[in-house]
Each structure stands twice: as structure tokens, then as C-alpha cells.
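Supplementary Methods. Inverse-folding protocol.

Structures were first reduced to a C-alpha cell string of length 150. This string, shown here, constituted the complete conditioning input.
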């Protein structure tokens, strides 16, 4: 499975009014520590828009918030939002191709992935590390590793 990188989503760090430091308040909201002005990162903008307009599609959200469609789609893949049941839009599982409402993989593929991962960890634990355990063919009970005296 490929590596997943999370986006920054245009987080405000400096107040546009007084150039004070913006402090994270939660759910995409930031507040200036000097003047108290509130700003929102991309997640906060999309979240606020969806609270007022539930069921809006990605194109409309992007048009009204200024957040790129790619960023919105990534938020859906990161399970920050999900596609409504009555929507004509959908995502596809990146492993099997079945339609899903959020995330990158369906629940079945996620469970299969974790099961395989746990099995790999179990095999590594049994083998005592990475790679195959080395066996000495003429091992007769003596210690495999001997401390040599110099």
C-alpha cells in the first residue's frame, strides 16, 4: 500500500489585522492572541460551509469557500467528511474498487490489511527479528554464540 501524506490545509499563523500570532482553537478555527480576530484554515472553511449547506457537492463548496477541489477530496479521503447517502458522487476503494463514502479503502479491505499486517508482525516475533532465523545444522545443544576471550 502506498504512503499517505497529509496536507497542511492553509493554516493561518499570522493575523492579517495586527500580525499577531494565531492560536489554534479547534475544528479549523484560529484566534489572534492580540486582537482576537478569528480565521479559519481550509478545513474550518469547508466545515462552516457544510453546516449551513448540508449535502453541497465538492464543486459548489470549492466555489464558495475558495478551497481547492483537490484539498476537499483529500479531506474526504482522510475521513474528515463523508459523502451523503443520497449523493450521486462516490469514491472508490483504492484496493478493490467498491464505492465508499469516505476514506481510501472499504471496511473489508481495511480489515484484511490489518489482519495481514498483524500476521507479518507475528511471524517476525516468532523468528526473533528481521529476516530468517539462522540454523546451525550440526547444533548439538551447545550455545550458538560463544564469548571469545582475547
Amino acid at each position: 500500500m502506498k504512503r499517505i501524506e497529509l496536507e497542511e490545509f492553509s493554516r493561518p499563523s499570522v493575523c492579517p489585522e495586527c500580525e499577531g500570532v494565531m492560536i489554534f482553537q479547534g475544528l479549523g478555527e484560529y484566534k489572534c492572541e492580540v486582537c482576537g480576530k478569528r480565521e479559519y484554515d481550509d478545513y474550518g472553511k469547508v466545515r462552516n460551509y457544510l453546516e449551513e449547506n448540508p449535502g453541497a457537492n465538492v464543486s459548489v463548496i470549492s466555489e464558495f469557500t475558495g478551497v481547492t477541489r483537490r484539498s476537499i477530496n483529500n479531506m474526504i479521503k482522510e475521513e474528515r467528511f463523508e459523502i451523503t447517502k443520497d449523493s450521486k458522487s462516490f469514491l472508490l476503494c483504492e484496493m478493490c474498487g467498491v464505492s465508499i463514502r469516505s476514506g481510501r479503502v472499504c471496511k473489508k479491505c481495511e480489515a484484511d490489511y490489518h489482519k495481514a499486517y498483524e500476521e507479518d508482525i507475528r511471524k517476525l516475533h516468532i523468528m526473533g527479528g528481521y529476516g530468517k532465523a539462522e540454523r546451525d545444522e550440526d547444533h548439538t545443544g551447545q550455545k550458538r554464540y560463544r564469548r571469545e576471550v582475547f
